[in-house]
Design goal:
Oligomer: heterodimer
CATH class of the largest domain in chain A: Mainly Alpha
Pathway (chain A): Energy metabolism; oxidative phosphorylation
Number of helices of chain A: 27
Helix content of chain B: 55-70%
CATH topology of the largest domain in chain A: Cytochrome C Oxidase, Chain A
Strand order of the largest sheet of chain B: 1-2
Shape of chain B: elongated
Structural class of chain B: mainly alpha
EC number (chain A): 7.1.1.9
Largest interface: A-B, 73 and 60 residues
Number of domains of chain B: 4
Membrane topology (chain A): Multi-pass membrane protein
Order of helices and strands of chain B: HHHHHHEEHHHEHHE
Strand content of chain A: under 5%
CATH superfamily of the largest domain in chain A: Cytochrome c oxidase-like, subunit I domain
Radius of gyration of chain A: 27 Å
CATH architecture of the largest domain in chain A: Up-down Bundle
Largest sheet of chain B: 2 strands, antiparallel
Protein name (chain A): cytochrome-c oxidase
CATH class of the largest domain in chain B: Mainly Alpha
Enzyme class (chain A): translocase
Largest sheet of chain A: 2 strands, antiparallel
Structural class of chain A: mainly alpha
Strand order of the largest sheet of chain A: 1-4
Chain lengths: 730, 304
């Protein structure tokens, strides 16, 4: 425990007087997080640019497993969310928290553990995701040992933060800190609940939730990762750095109270808007809709308080690039948080969901709000950390314009692409048939937009390179003020504590009560949506004919997960005529009860696969996986030649079976012992079928298992028979 | 000046409207005379409807007119209202704020600016104002809450709204009506008796359809790849044009032949079936080995 004692610096000064103590802020940790922010920002965005061009030119998948879109897309999202924005959060929090609490961070050792622990977690993500170790749950792809490491490091962060708050020399907590506290608590809850999984081996696990429940938990998490990782901490940063940069008072204290509490309470409910028209129960979908609409005002409360703080300072905005970045950031936040509720309306969602419209929407938030606010904070911090003016204001301005153009070049083509494709999917001709029956037609139509979007990404990234140069030159010109001296009152002044002020002042003096209040606020929504979905059976009506996967299909499914197929293919036929005509009967909740994790997907770059089973012969899949363009000329899907070379690894099969049985999949007793044998038998059958079509393949290759899984998809319900019976009855 | 003339203009317009309605109602009278046959009854109903529409239009016009008059009146009263608005008791009330908006004072939308910094709120040099919640924001928030409650009641309490499954059934029922109109024949067991198309335009169309949809599996020259060779005399599911049409339309479950029903129109399917039969004996390179039974095309083996 000794190492975790409050930081003492050599030569710390004796109190100057009875009331004032000289002490030092830790600036080095701020600098370190800042450098990490920039480093991972470039890495994450570079991967993003590559992934963007892969969609236009499949050969950029480079023919290796480690560089295909399905594996690097999660690397891109994880890198920009948790590495770039994550380090950005810590940069801003470590700087502002010390100053808002008028004390050094609680423990330098904890700060260091936090910093290096977080970087190690990112490195482990870079190491595992391209190798195909993934849970496939979006923004939570990292496998269980890394999940545990994240939990531990997050606790270190919380410990350090609450320790600092406890030692504050400031009676009241500023609004920025309320947001930091809500961020810490909610992310902890989200991460732990969504990462519940049973390990099968060192880097493989199965979600304890299945199908509909897994989807609900995942999007409660996914949506609130946006809320509490990309939004609340950045609102906290905005509340510190905007008034600092503008040198203006915050517009409205009471607005910050109302929008803080309403935001954290309402946000949590809105997750199901990611699952509209899916097999999620209707009542949960409707809750997602209405809470999303109610979220407009709380979100805009932050925007208003930000923009109106600039009242009387707009002349500064014209001259100060930092404020320009901030204004665009806040405006992008306002646009994205208005668009989000609109996309949550079912009739809009019916067109936009699964298309590039959603990709445009998130990038307005990510590039505009998170990116630009991060840049503003870094530009503001660097001269202060290095005690010298910024190297070049001109370059800052160029960065600003490159970034803004980049956002436009990114977002507009994606909106266009999303809108185009969404309408093409739904278009019927006069004869009552799909106008674009061939899915590929709708893809080829938007490939030019994919090029433009990639160019937008390059513009944005080149701006970031200018920033790196500018920050580097600034650092070189100055010296790091590693420990910044400050004076703080030794004791909190009780005589002037304004006990009779605003009612909310009471809780601002009490971090524990504030934390409890925030925890209650964020638990309600999730509980109301999850508990009935888990406890009440009628929410997921079971279907007798739906059976567990065979051991070979299970292995095939794990290959589907490893290759990241879910990044481009959905498994959720929605109840629209345009989808049942194209894919077959719409997906039912009861069909997914053995799906751990669920693989509904969120983007349809390729067609839906839920009813692909038995639609084509084995040989079609064989040829298609070897070279997609052989079966679908013009396809942008990458080839998967390694599936034809690798032998299927059966080592974990028995462990997988017993893990799934533990979770409730009704595999017969002792199935572990015969699982591999059964799998080999089924594989031999598929190889024999392929041989009939003049394709010679060894039955122990991975491709055979993948074909087994694909051919099983969506075949358990005998819809065709039912339909025939219905026709006969009429 | 315009505002002074506005009421008179509106009155004039309204009287014109009303007299028009009356005239129409009189026109309709003769048609309302007793008549025995159904056609005349229908005409009568139509006339009643016209009269009704005119009446409704007239009433709407009247209401708009009254509102315009009121507005004009209020507009002229502005100097007086400004005096009223100046009273603090009025200004603080909700109708006072509405009055303010009318008089061009936006405080009812934006809220009041209080330019004094709050005492005791100083965090590392950051101070705070205690400005009002902008009313447009606050009432917007209330509105979304009302929307939320109403939405939930509409769909889950009174159950007036169609949820996903019902919406889908509705959509399918509408589509079924359409396909009934188009006379779609969707019974796989009902034989068709089409003749092969021979017009060059049809064969060309069939060729295009083949290249776009069939070539991936059957090869560009129908030599057979994943799917069988279509240029030889051997057929798995019959080589007569109606048999080929049937295979194209309904597919072959479990063997990978896609059902093109709903993706290609009947005409397109017949075009492509006819095109395929023109390829008989074309002997393409890399032809796949024969599959199925030998049949001579052109002479239907058996009537369907």
């Amino acid at each position: 425990m000794a190492v975790l004692a409050p930081a003492k610096l050599p030569g710390e000064e004796k109190p100057l007087s009875r009331a004032v103590l000289a002490s030092f802020y830790d600036n080095k940790i701020v600098r370190d997080f800042g450098v990490a922010t920039v480093f991972w920002g470039i890495a994450g965005m570079l991967i993003g640019v590559i992934a963007a061009f892969q969609l236009a030119r499949p050969e950029l998948n480079m023919g290796t497993p480690y560089t295909t879109f399905g594996r690097i897309r999660p690397l891109h999202t994880n890198a920009v969310i948790f590495a770039f924005v994550g380090n950005g959060i810590f940069t801003g929090v470590y700087y502002s928290l010390q100053r808002l609490c008028k004390t050094r961070m609680f423990s330098d050792v904890l700060s260091k553990i936090h910093f290096w622990g977080w970087q190690l977690i990112i490195v482990s993500a870079v190491a595992t995701l391209p190798l195909g170790f993934t849970t496939s749950k979006e923004y939570a792809e990292l496998e269980w040992p890394i999940d545990i490491a994240i939990t531990l490091i997050w606790v270190v962060f919380g410990w350090n933060m609450f320790g600092t708050i406890a030692r504050r020399k400031e009676k009241h907590l500023y609004v920025g800190i309320w947001f930091y506290i809500a961020t810490f608590l909610t992310v902890a809850v989200l991460h732990i609940v969504n990462s519940m999984e049973i390990p099968v081996s060192f880097l493989k696990s199965y979600s304890v939730y299945a199908g509909v429940q897994d989807a609900l938990v995942q999007w409660w998490y996914g949506h609130n990762a946006v809320a509490f990782f990309l939004t609340t901490p950045y609102l906290g940063l905005m509340y510190y750095f905007l008034p600092k940069a503008a040198e203006r008072p915050v517009y409205s204290y009471r607005l910050s109270i109302i929008h803080f509490w309403s935001l954290i309470f309402i946000y949590i409910w809105a997750g199901p808007h990611h699952l509209l028209y899916t097999a999620l129960p209707d009542w949960a979908q409707s809750l997602g809709v209405v809470f999303s609409v109610m979220l407009i005002a709380p979100s805009w409360g932050g925007m208003i308080n930000g923009l109106l703080t600039l009242r009387g300072a707009w002349d500064k905005v014209r001259q100060e690039p930092i404020l320009k970045f901030m204004v665009v950031a806040i405006t992008a936040y306002g646009m994205a948080t208005f668009e989000g509720p609109m996309l949550s309306l079912k009739n809009v969602n019916a067109i936009a969901h699964f298309t590039d419209w959603i990709v445009a929407h998130v990038h307005v938030g990510a590039l505009g709000w998170n990116g630009f606010l991060t840049f503003a904070v870094l530009y503001w911090l660097w001269p202060r950390l290095y005690q010298t003016p910024i190297h070049s204001r001109k370059l800052m301005n160029v960065h600003f314009w490159l970034g803004t153009l980049g956002i436009l070049f990114y977002a507009l083509p994606m909106y266009w692409a999303g809108f185009t494709q969404g309408l093409m999917w739904k278009q019927f001709n006069e004869e009552g048939m799909l106008q674009y029956a061939n899915f590929l037609e709708t893809v080829m139509q938007i490939v030019p937009m994919y090029y433009l979007r990639g160019i937008g990404g390059v513009l944005y990234l080149s701006g970031v390179f200018l920033m790196v140069y500018n920050l580097y030159q600034t650092a070189k010109a100055g010296t790091l003020l590693a420990n910044e001296k400050f004076h703080a009152p030794v004791v909190i002044d009780h005589e002037h504590s304004h006990e009779g002020g605003h009612w909310h002042r009471w809780i601002e003096r009490r971090p524990v009560q504030l934390s409890i209040g925030a925890t209650i606020a964020i638990l309600i929504g999730g509980a109301v949506e999850m508990i009935p979905t888990f406890m009440i059976k009628s929410n997921v009506p079971t279907i007798a004919s739906v059976k567990p996967y065979t051991s070979l299909e299970l292995e095939g499914r794990d290959l589907y997960i490893r290759e990241g197929c879910v990044n481009c293919h959905t498994q959720m036929v929605r109840p629209f005529r345009s989808e049942t005509e194209r894919y077959g009967e719409y997906s039912k909740a009861g069909e997914f009860v053995y799906d751990r994790p669920f693989l509904w997907g969120s983007k349809r770059t390729g067609p839906d696969l839920h009813r692909v089973g038995q639609k084509y012969p084995h040989s079609w899949h064989y040829n298609h996986m070897m070279d997609p363009t052989s079966m679908s000329p013009g396809s942008i899907m990458p080839p998967y030649p390694w599936l034809f070379e690798n032998d299927l690894d059966y080592a974990d099969t028995p462990a997988k079976i017993s893990a799934l049985r533990k979770l409730g999949t009704p595999y017969p007793a002792g199935f572990e012992q015969v699982a591999v044998q059964e799998a080999r038998k089924q594989a031999a059958g598929i190889a024999a079928d392929l041989a009939k079509e003049d394709i010679q393949v060894k039955s122990d290759k991975e491709i055979v298992a993948l074909i087994a899984y694909l051919q099983r998809l969506g075949t358990d319900i005998k819809v065709k028979d039912e339909q025939a019976a219905a026709v006969a009855a009429e | 000046m315009l505002t002074r003339k506005l009421p008179y203009a509106a009155l004039l317009a309204l009287s014109a409207l009303l007299s028009g309605t009356a005239a129409r109602a009189q026109d309709a009278d003769p048609a309302a005379a007793p008549a025995a046959d159904a056609a005349q009854k229908a005409a009568e109903a139509g006339a009643d409807l016209t009269a009704m529409l005119w009446l409704m239009g007239g009433l709407t016009g009247l209401i708009i007119f009254v509102l315009l008059m009121l507005f004009a009146l209020l507009w002229q009263m502005r100097p007086l209202l400004r005096e009223v608005y100046a009273l603090p008791t009025i200004r603080e009330s909700w109708y006072g704020r509405a009055l303010g908006l009318f008089l061009g004072d936006p405080v009812g939308l934006t809220g009041k600016y209080k330019e004094d910094v709050m005492a005791g709120h100083d965090y590392d040099g950051i101070t705070e104002y205690d400005n009002d919640l902008p009313p447009w924001w606050k009432y917007g928030f209330y509105l979304t809450i009302v929307f939320g409650v109403a939405y939930f009641i509409h769909f889950h309490v009174t159950r007036d709204g169609e949820l996903s499954a019902a919406e889908y059934q509705h959509e399918m029922a509408e589509a079924a009506l359409l396909s009934a109109q188009l006379g779609a024949n969707d019974d796989p067991n009902k034989p068709t008796d089409y003749q092969s198309l021979t017009a060059a335009a049809d064969i060309d169309a069939g060729k295009t359809i083949f290249a776009q949809n069939c070539a991936a599996c059957h090869g560009q020259s129908a030599e057979g790849k994943v799917g069988p060779n279509l240029t030889d005399e051997y057929w798995l599911h019959g080589g007569e044009v109606n048999k080929v049409y049937h295979t194209v339309k309904y597919g072959v479950q479990g063997k990978g032949m896609v059902a093109w029903k709903g993706k290609l129109s009947s005409k397109q399917m017949l075009q492509v079936a006819s095109y395929i039969l023109t390829l008989q004996g074309s002997k393409p390179a890399n032809a796949k080995a024969p599959q199925g039974e030998k049949e001579a095309v052109g002479k239907p083996v058996a009537r369907l």
